[in-house]
Amino acid sequence: MMYKVELLSSGVQFVAAEKQTILEAALEQNIPFPNRCQVGACGMCLCRLVEGNVSYQLEPMLTEKERAEGWIFACQACATTDLVLTFDE
Prior knowledge:
Elements: E1 2-7, E2 12-17, H1 22-28, E3 46-51, E4 54-56, H2 64-68, E5 71-73, E6 77-79, E7 83-86
Parallel strand pairs: 1-7
Antiparallel strand pairs: 1-2, 3-5, 3-7, 4-6
């Protein structure tokens, strides 16, 4: 299954496969996406989920407040629906 991912700040859209992380999908399609470690330790790929749902193989280190505000680690999150993301706070 493929899901559409839209980045609000730039209007860029790309697709992510069901078991592919959002970051992997973006980089594979030459979409600029902030990243450094690609394992959820640095926080560079942190973005806010505006619409949609994601799943994780391993739950990321997010505070309850960050989770409630919709923050996700794109290097660890896989789309389970179409997504709209933003880097804005």
